[in-house]
Write a structure and sequence with these properties.
GO terms for molecular function: protein-glutamine glutaminase activity. Pfam families: CheD (PF03975). It catalyses: L-glutaminyl-[protein] + H2O = L-glutamyl-[protein] + NH4(+). The protein has one domain: 60s Ribosomal Protein L30, Chain: A, CATH 3.30.1330.200. The chain is 21% helix and 35% strand. It has helices at residues 59-64, 70-83, 112-126; strands at 7-9, 14-19, 23-29, 33-39, 44-50, 92-97, 131-136, 143-148, 154-158, 161-164. Strands 1-3-8-9-10 form a five-stranded mixed β-sheet, with no helix packed on it. It has a five-stranded mixed β-sheet with strand order 2-5-4-6-7, covered by helices on one side. It starts with 6 loop residues before the first strand and ends with a strand.
């Protein structure tokens, strides 16, 4: 999936929210997570590309760029969506990424992808938010994720195949 007219690109450790006839897209989701939120009534959506699970490893970086970490980026994503009119009870959450990256398939000593997804699930659970769908895991899988803000459709391209979450 290359950029198309109307796409707003979300970089690594970045976050964007928008409404209207546009799409949000992020590339190269390996162990990182792409997290989308969409409110079908307010027609507000957001996409967060997080790299690491826990901001406790570097509070300074987290203060400068909360989108780098799951535990600081996800709350920011929700707060900013609320500021644009989204409501918690209507928000649809989808996620992709979280791949394993080791020298061989079962060797991933840091398990960043797995830890990112676990941190996200913990945050959502603690805040009574359901995860609608996900495409996570796999070994050395790179994904492209796109959120259509008109329909709320989320597509993921990995290994030459495009699927809808």
């Amino acid at each position: 999936m290359s950029p198309q007219a109307g796409d707003l690109v979300v970089g690594m450790a970045d976050l964007r929210l928008a409404r209207g006839a546009t799409r949000l897209v992020t590339y190269a989701l390996g162990s990182c997570l792409g997290i989308t939120v969409w409110d079908p009534v307010a027609r507000v959506g957001g996409l967060l590309h997080v790299m690491l699970p826990d901001s406790g490893i570097d509070a300074g970086k987290a203060a400068r760029n909360p989108a780098m970490f799951v535990d600081t980026g996800v709350p920011l994503l929700f707060r900013q969506s609320y500021e644009l009119g989204a409501r918690k009870e209507r928000i649809v959450v989808r996620v992709a990424g979280g791949a394993h990256h080791g020298a061989v398939e079962h060797d991933d000593p840091f398990e960043i992808g797995k830890r990112n997804f676990l941190m996200l699930r913990r945050l959502l659970w603690k805040n009574d938010v359901l995860l609608k769908s996900h495409d996570v895991g796999g070994w050395q899988t790179s994904r492209t994720m796109r959120l259509d803000l008109v329909t709320g459709e989320v597509t993921v391209k990995a290994n030459g195949r495009t699927s809808t979450l």
